[in-house]
Amino acid sequence: MAPRFTVRSTTAADWQEVRALRLQALADTPIAFGETLAAGRRRDEASWRERGGRGQLEHSTFLAAIDADGTWVGTMGGTVEGTPAAPLPMLVGVFIAPSHRGRRIGVADALLAGVEEWAATEGDTITLDVHEDNDRAIAFYEARAYVRTGRTRPYPLAQGSRELEMRKAL
User: Fold this and answer.
1) How far apart are CA 110 and CA 103, in angstroms?
2) Positions in the chain short of pLDDT 50
3) What is the pLDDT of residue 59?
4) Which of 27, 89, 92, 154 lies at a 20 to 30 A Cα distance from 36?
5) Domain ranges of the chain
6) How many angstroms separate the CA atoms of 124 and 116, rounded?
7) Which 3 state secondary structure label does DSSP give 86?
8) What is the model's pTM?
9) Nearest-CA neighbor of 118 among 29, 56, 47?
10) Long-range contacts of 25-32, Cβ-Cβ distance < 8 Å, separation of 24 or more
């Protein structure tokens, strides 16, 4: 059965959809992001346009999965950290609407494939940070050959909790 969604890069013109899905993400899975729902709600239109425009920037990608009825059901992005001599592609901004989660539907896998394809043009690995209590996300990444590097960092929104670094060779 063919997917009932399409995946494409976002643009600044998508700002309203980017905003709506991001606010849904912040409400649904607050531990997955370094921003609160209240902070997200305070962002202005220019900020949302910039976020949507990341899909068109050099050394960046931001993909959206859009259902057959035009509803945005997932996003995933990538950015490059590190240095020009040692680029480090990072997976960021991951959210799949609850109605479209699960391997049977395939939204997360389709978005991840797109980000990994982009990352392979930027470096030979892709890295991500995931909250230590986000078991579903950790299991998803481990099932797709991401490994824990052993590095952690404090999660900025909850004292005492950590984010785990995971990496995949491309």
Assistant:
1) 10
2) 1
3) 94
4) 89
5) 5-169
6) 10
7) coil
8) 0.93
9) 56
10) 25/75, 25/95, 28/95, 28/98, 29/95, 29/134, 30/157, 31/131, 31/133, 31/134, 31/155, 31/157, 31/158, 31/161, 32/94, 32/95, 32/130, 32/131, 32/134, 32/137
Between the CA of residue 83 and those of 46, 74, 87, 89, what are the distances in Å? 28, 29, 5, 10
5-169, what's its fold?
A: Aminopeptidase (3.40.630)
DSSP 67: E
Residue 105 in tokens: 């539907």
Burial class (CB in 10 A: 0-12, 13-18, 19+), 48: buried
C-alpha–C-alpha distance, residues 127 and 169, integer Å: 9
Q: What would the two tokens of residue 140 be?
A: 């998803």
- The token duo for 147 is 């490994």
The whole-number pLDDT of residue 3 equals 62
**What length is written for the chain?**
170
Residue pointed to by tokens 């600044």 = 12
33/135 Cα distance (integer angstroms): 15
Q: Which residues contact 160 (CB under 8 A, 6 or more apart)?
A: none
Residue 15: the pLDDT is: 98
CA angle 56-60-61, nearest 5°? 65
